[in-house]
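Aim 2, interim progress. The first record below pairs a target sequence with its structure tokens.
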Amino acid sequence: AYLLDGDGRVRAADAATGALRHQYQSLGVLSLAYQAPYLYFERQSEIRIVEAATGNWLRTAVAAPAGQGAMLGGMIVDGSRLYTGVNGVGGSYYAFDAGTGRSLWARPGAFTSVPCLAFGTLYLSSGPFGSADSFALDAANGFQSRALPKLGAISWTAAGGMVYASVLRGGGNALRATI
């Protein structure tokens, strides 16, 4: 099991006993993704590709120049690709080679949801909380295939051949949640 503590330190523990196997030499980690044999650490505008079994830092994928913005805090690894994005003004979403960290494509757009990958399509939302537009992107090239205006989705999930959006609309005491 890979654990992320409140300070952004990553530890590997035996899933059955909880015994610590090793601690990685990274601080300020925002999120993790795992696909054997690699563990991916999201740190501000970079992704560190680490050998999961040993903790050896192998490569870095850089999504944005320092100071441009922090990543949203979520990555998706699927086969040979890793997807994420940079939030805020001047943000973009990205696909990297999951083994080398080489950039495959980048498209402008500051999104406000962790992306979801299903059936070769990347789903994400962009815009102010509760009134975001949502988009379906071709995962191979990042080009938009569909737009869902003002859906307000903040979380996407795929299961059982379906894609689900958890949607929040409104504000204050009038906040509504739907799926």
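The second target in this work package is listed in the same format:
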Amino acid sequence: EMCIRDSSNRQSEIIVKYWEKKTKIKTIYVRTDPGLTRQRNLGIQKSKGSVIAFFDDDVVLESSYLEHMTNCFRRFPDIGGATGYITNNPEKGKIKLAYQRFFLLSGSGRKGKMLRSGFAAFLDPKYVNTMQPTEVLSGCNMFFRKEILDEYQFDEAFEGYSQMEDVEFSHRISKKNIMLFVKGAMLIHNRSRSERLDIKRYFEMSVFNHYYIFKKNVKKSCIDW
């Protein structure tokens, strides 16, 4: 079952109805006020099934992606969620990477986790053979068991484009549930900038959201501050 939410015009609805007839996939189309976290929560309420998947509209899945994810949830019935391998993430220069790591601003490494700064350090795929536990999932492709989502909701304090809502949500779930990075589930993320914020508003949101995550989720010792 596919749940499509929010659009500035009827074009999305027309496309959804076309593919519903072509693929026979049951589709629910709901208009809402803008807000990614609000739309995600509505999608959870309207969706059925044992596993719920979230995708951005600018991703391209490799042909074996869903097979790898399905096998993962069948093989490990106790996991709460999973994410795949974005193959076109840009490589960061050594100077930029060293700067970000020193100030705990993001980066990647052997563990997927939330840093003491409130930023996320996603798993570096070169350290993963097939699967590995992670505390943070990528919002452009993430899966959760339905019973997990009956207990948790996305934080609707994140408004609009809601940058980092995926990190905050998945990290919250990771405190009680195992989640996996699945290397074989590969995809491309084209990162469309269509209808997103201008650069000034984008960075204002980035600063505010990271501070909000820090205040909400990080143990605020003197070193953290």
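The longest strand covers residues 179-189. This observation will shape the mutagenesis plan for the next reporting period.
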